[in-house]
Amino acid sequence: MAATGPAMPQPLSGTKEYEEAVDRVIDSAVCTVRVFDNILSAGFNSAQRYAALRRLLLSSRRSALRIVVHEPRSLDRNCPRLLALLRQFGHLVQIHETHPAAKAVYDPFVIADERGYVRRFHFDQTPGTCAIEDPIGARALIDRFEEIWEASSPAVNATTLGL
Were both Cys, which of 1, 15, 116, 137 would link to 132 (CB 3.0–4.6 Å)? Predict the structure, then answer.
């Protein structure tokens, strides 16, 4: 189906659909992936997602992977592939933890460049939406991400790995 303008966000009803949508959005990225979540899912340790993120990071010196989580301490146990990307591409990958004042933000999302996104309405619920070509919706989430980023600080870096 060829898109002629901004795509309407597609509803997502379950965890499997959400994880598949995250993979589609990441695959569509050309330059930047922004992630906000409470705790990163096991999907960030999948071989497929690792390969897509690695391809993105290898594609340009301007590529970036920016992640903000409420709880970074489980990354070493649950996401060793993501941490391998951090070690290899420390200049392109940043992982932050939210400050206490921002811990009340509850809607996780992933944004590809300035046009695609997937989001859930709440950490504890599976309904969400996904759009690969929706620059207006993506811009609203980018603005939200930047606010969260400002209310966070580096949590994991390439040398200490947060261990």
Answer: 116
Q: Which residues of 93-105 are buried (b: 16+ CB within 10 A; e: fewer)?
A: bbbbbbeeebeeb
Query: Do residues 137 and 21 make contact, with C-beta atoms less than 8 angstroms apart?
Result: no
Render pLDDT for 98-108 as a digit per residue (tens, 0 to 9). Answer: 999 999 999 99
- If one counts every other C-beta atom within 10 angstroms of the C-beta of residue 135, the result is 17
Q: Is 71 exposed, middle or buried (0-12, 13-18, 19+ CB in 10 A)?
A: middle
Q: What is the pTM of this model?
A: 0.91
- 84 burial level (CB within 10 Å; 0-12, 13-18, 19+): middle
**Total length of the chain:** 163
Q: Are 33 and 66 in contact (CB under 8 A)?
A: yes
